[in-house]
Design a protein that fits this description.
Blueprint: E1 2-4, E2 10-12, H1 32-49, H2 55-81, H3 99-112, H4 116-123, H5 126-131, H6 137-156, H7 158-170, H8 176-206, H9 212-236, H10 248-259, H11 274-278, H12 283-310
Antiparallel strand pairs: 1-2
């Protein structure tokens, strides 16, 4: 004999039952646009850092983080062993000088890891699915940019904060709460500025191709190629130092120096060195160039995705 199930479908005793799977409205919490953006930021950060992915996807991003942190760990170890003020005695680099040590890790991370955060969504067809949610094109791109900027800040801000806290505990930190807060603000401002500029540029390059390898090559050429070309033009050909405006790395360094108040050249420095020539540029010019890099990167990214959206 058969009996009626709760869904009204008859089934024999002991046999599999077919339940009526009618459409049911979603009754859970609705977090809207803010919740959607937050979800994309978190998932993109996890994706970029390889969290929840096989070990091979974790190696490169965390290698860059380790490369950026190792000098800071070594410096703290030296400061702990030697009972002297290593910064004042010019034995260890000052806070603003540390950025030169992590530039390789920063470029490596942007060139190898960042392109995947945009290319993967276009390649595997996830972009239309994202745009079918409360997300719109601007909020999707803003979420991706925020995810990249936050992960980059791990490299641009993290090691400097570690140094500041460790030096303070050890006794080699800034004198007084006021000086300590000034250094903290400068570290945060410099790290965020550098992360924002490189984020905009690397995402713009990554938006121009659906091939990850081409995106990697493009980002590396932008970061390293412009550095080589502008250095030759200014230092060897002795052209106008404003050509450094096309050097993303040097302009980020220059902005960082102005934030730390060390924009003037070091006494006795070679007049043809990058530090000497860049110091000829006004602070307003340096700020404007970095803002222009961010604006140009955002414009290219928006233009490219508007075209992609129009073809779907």
């Amino acid at each position: 004999m058969s009996e009626s199930t709760e869904s009204g479908v008859a089934a024999a005793d002991g046999a599999a039952q077919i339940h009526d799977q009618r459409f049911r409205p979603y009754e859970g919490p609705r977090r809207g646009l803010a919740g959607a953006m937050r979800a994309v930021i978190v998932s993109s950060m996890r994706f970029t850092l390889g969290l929840g992915r096989p070990a091979r996807h974790k190696f490169l991003p965390w290698l860059a983080v380790v490369i950026a942190l190792v000098p800071a760990i070594v410096f703290v170890g030296i400061a702990t062993v030697l009972d002297i003020d290593l910064i004042s005695d010019n034995i260890l680099p000052e806070y603003h000088e540390y950025y030169g040590l992590i530039q390789a890790a920063l470029f490596f991370y942007c060139g190898i890891v960042v392109p995947e955060i945009l290319v993967a969504d276009r390649r595997n067809g996830m972009l239309p699915l994202y745009l079918s949610t409360p997300l719109r094109l601007w909020s999707y791109l803003a979420s991706k940019a925020a995810a990249v900027a936050v992960t980059l800040a791990v490299i641009t801000v993290g090691p400097l904060l570690f140094l500041l806290i460790a030096y303070t505990v050890e006794g080699s930190g800034p004198d007084g709460l006021g000086d300590w807060l000034i250094v903290l603000v400068r570290i945060l401002a410099s790290g965020v500025a550098i992360a924002a500029t490189i984020t905009a540029a690397s995402l713009a390059i990554s938006s121009l191709t659906d091939r990850r390898a081409f995106a990697v090559i493009g980002v590396i050429l932008l970061l390293l190629g412009t550095q080589l070309v502008t250095s030759v033009l200014v230092e060897v050909a002795e052209m106008d130092p404003r050509i450094y405006a096309f050097n993303l790395g040097e302009m980020g360094e220059a902005l960082k120096d102005r934030i730390f108040g060390v924009g003037s050249p070091v006494l006795g420095e070679d007049e043809s060195s990058p530090g000497q020539r860049i110091s000829e540029l006004s602070t307003l010019f340096v700020i404007a160039v970095n803002a222009a890099w961010v604006a140009a990167g955002a414009a290219v990214l928006w233009w490219r995705y508007r075209r992609i959206e129009g073809t779907q």
